[in-house]
From TrEMBL:
<feature type="region of interest" description="Disordered">
    <location>
        <begin position="411"/>
        <end position="529"/>
    </location>
</feature>
<feature type="compositionally biased region" description="Basic residues">
    <location>
        <begin position="444"/>
        <end position="461"/>
    </location>
</feature>
<feature type="domain" description="DUF7507">
    <location>
        <begin position="321"/>
        <end position="411"/>
    </location>
</feature>
<dbReference type="InterPro" id="IPR055354">
    <property type="entry name" value="DUF7507"/>
</dbReference>
<feature type="compositionally biased region" description="Basic and acidic residues">
    <location>
        <begin position="462"/>
        <end position="481"/>
    </location>
</feature>
<protein>
    <recommendedName>
        <fullName>DUF7507 domain-containing protein</fullName>
    </recommendedName>
</protein>
<feature type="domain" description="DUF7507">
    <location>
        <begin position="207"/>
        <end position="306"/>
    </location>
</feature>
<dbReference type="InterPro" id="IPR047589">
    <property type="entry name" value="DUF11_rpt"/>
</dbReference>
<feature type="domain" description="DUF7507">
    <location>
        <begin position="2"/>
        <end position="77"/>
    </location>
</feature>
<feature type="compositionally biased region" description="Basic and acidic residues">
    <location>
        <begin position="488"/>
        <end position="529"/>
    </location>
</feature>
<dbReference type="InterPro" id="IPR051172">
    <property type="entry name" value="Chlamydia_OmcB"/>
</dbReference>
<dbReference type="Pfam" id="PF24346">
    <property type="entry name" value="DUF7507"/>
</dbReference>
<feature type="compositionally biased region" description="Low complexity">
    <location>
        <begin position="414"/>
        <end position="428"/>
    </location>
</feature>
<feature type="domain" description="DUF7507">
    <location>
        <begin position="92"/>
        <end position="189"/>
    </location>
</feature>
């Protein structure tokens, strides 16, 4: 303070008229209380800044000086102002962490924690955390902070609601989150923003495929049949498998077709293919193939393979079926001829060779039967007829019948179920039961003279070559004829009605003549005697 007057001033003081500080207002002290004209005195006051002063950016102080003249008059100076200002810069940092740091499957939860620190000199308020980037597909994070006002150097912890990991997150290979902290600053209208903070959650899923293989039908019998394969493919891992495919030893590229282009964890899809059985398969006795499933991991792009799956479809073993018939079913005279017909069908899946008839029981006294079968292989699904001829004896008539049981056999020990046939033997009227026929007595049978107006028809058995040569025509290869159901060798008069074979001729019979035939045979027998 300077005394600009011409009188000495006493009780000189300095007093604040305005003070913007937020702390205790200071009081100025002067070293003496009188001031001569032209004299100067310095008064001082000390003030300690508080955070609020920093936050407002300045402290302004306005003061006046007063003194008293010898006449008792008070003199006051004009106001004098002093302002203290500083760089009130706000600062904010953000750190971020995630727990757990690694996930392996969808449904797991991740908790994100954020720590915001005031690194400036001003108090920050309205603290929030804002996500700037988040790769999670399950929605944005909801973050809350406490406290929301930060003094310099103070920190606040912000947490996000637990985030549930999705399958897409797992398949992406990593889960990343970037965020910033934002707060209001009293000295910066735009507020304070921290540098970005990033947290990465790694994914470590397991990859696995399980392959099951089904075949329909579960057995086959012959070449040309189709086997439908179904491949059941399951994702046993925790990462999606893209572009699933099947590699099968029976099929070339592109292999069986699959119903989907990706398999999510736990999901099952089906792939299908159809295979036609070959002759080699039939010879091998089964259709066996091995398959492997593979696909591409969605997270790393690496290939995943299943264990091998093998399926074997057996070829049905050779299986002959035997049907047996006899004609006539009833005999009344010695010397009558009975025709046995054995129809063998290959009901298996492999060709039969060396087909023969095994007579396990034959009660005819003139037996056993001499059965002739065609000399050719028997393919699956085909049949052949074997034939035997038997001449009734008096002993058969006395026994009352002829029983026969047989099975069909083939190379390799193959055998059919047995088939049985019975011929009823009953002596004709006026024929002494048990009398030997001329043939049995060593006599040559005499042919009964034809009656007036009677016509007897004969037809010689035709020779149609080695495959169809009839009996008893010449058989250089020793092969018996193959007899169709309902026909005897060389007979094509009427299907479904086998004719009697006698002395190398086939006699045609008219409908309803069985009883007459018996009488005719009786007449012939009497003629012989």
């Amino acid at each position: 303070m300077t005394n600009t007057g011409n009188v000495t001033l006493t009780d000189v003081t300095a007093a604040d008229t305005e003070f913007t500080g937020n702390g205790d207002q200071p009081v100025a002290g002067c070293p003496r209380d009188s001031l001569a004209p032209g004299g100067t005195v310095e008064c001082t006051a000390t003030y300690t800044l508080v955070q609020a002063d920093i936050d407002q950016g300045s402290v302004v102080n306005t003061a006046t000086a007063t003194g008293t003249t010898s006449a008792g008059q008070t003199t006051t100076s004009a106001p004098s102002e002093a302002a203290v200002t500083g760089p009130a810069v706000g600062g904010l940092t953000l750190t971020k962490s995630a727990e757990p740091e690694t996930v392996s499957e969808a449904g797991q939860t991740v908790t994100y924690t954020f720590t915001a620190t005031n690194t400036g000199v001003t108090t920050l308020s309205g603290l929030t955390v804002l996500e700037t980037a988040f790769s999670g597909t399950g929605g944005s994070l909801q973050v809350s902070c406490s406290p929301t006002t930060l003094a310099p150097t103070a920190s606040a912890t912000c947490t996000a609601t637990p985030y549930e990991v999705t399958q897409e997150d797992i398949d992406s290979g990593a889960l990343t989150n970037t965020a910033v902290a934002i707060a209001d600053s009293p000295t910066e209208p735009a507020g304070v923003t921290s540098a970005p903070a990033t947290a990465t959650v790694e994914t470590n899923p397991a990859a696995g495929l399980r392959l099951e293989k089904l075949a329909s039908p579960d057995t086959v019998a012959a070449a040309g049949e189709d086997v439908d394969y179904t491949y059941v493919l399951t994702n046993t891992g925790t990462v999606t498998i893209n572009n699933p495919a099947i590699e099968d030893s029976r099929f070339g590229p592109p292999g069986p077709g699959c119903s989907a282009e990706r398999i999510r964890p736990g999901q099952t899809i089906q792939c299908t293919a159809s295979y036609t059985v070959t002759a080699d398969d039939v010879t091998a006795g089964s259709v066996t193939n091995t398959a492997t499933a593979y696909g591409i991991r969605a997270d790393t792009g690496q290939q995943v393979e299943s264990d091998e799956a093998q399926e074997t479809v057996p070829v049905l073993a050779s299986s002959p079926a035997l049907a047996k018939s006899v004609f006539p079913a009833k005999v009344t005279l010695p010397g009558q001829q009975v025709v046995y017909r054995f129809e063998v069908e290959n009901t298996g899946g492999t060709t039969l060779s060396d087909v023969a008839i095994d007579e396990s029981r034959f009660t005819g006294s003139g037996g056993p039967l001499d059965v002739h079968c065609p000399r050719r292989p028997l393919a699956p699904g085909t049949s052949m007829t074997c034939v035997a001829y038997y001449t009734v004896t008096a002993a058969d008539l006395r026994a009352g019948g002829i029983d026969n049981t047989a099975t069909a056999t083939a190379e390799g020990g193959v055998r059919s179920a047995s088939a049985t046939a019975r011929v009823v033997a009953e002596a004709a009227p006026n024929s002494p039961k048990g009398r030997a026929a001329p043939e049995e007595a060593g006599q040559r049978p005499r042919r009964r003279p034809e009656r007036a107006g009677e016509r007897r028809r004969h037809r010689r058995l035709a020779d149609h070559g080695p495959q169809h040569r009839t009996h008893p025509a010449g058989e250089p290869d020793g092969e018996r004829p193959r007899v169709r159901r309902g026909h005897l060798p060389g007979d094509d008069a009427r299907p479904g009605r086998p004719d009697d074979l006698h002395h190398g001729a086939v006699h045609d019979h008219q409908e309803g003549r069985e009883e007459g035939e018996d009488r005719e045979r009786g007449d012939r027998l009497r003629d012989r005697h």
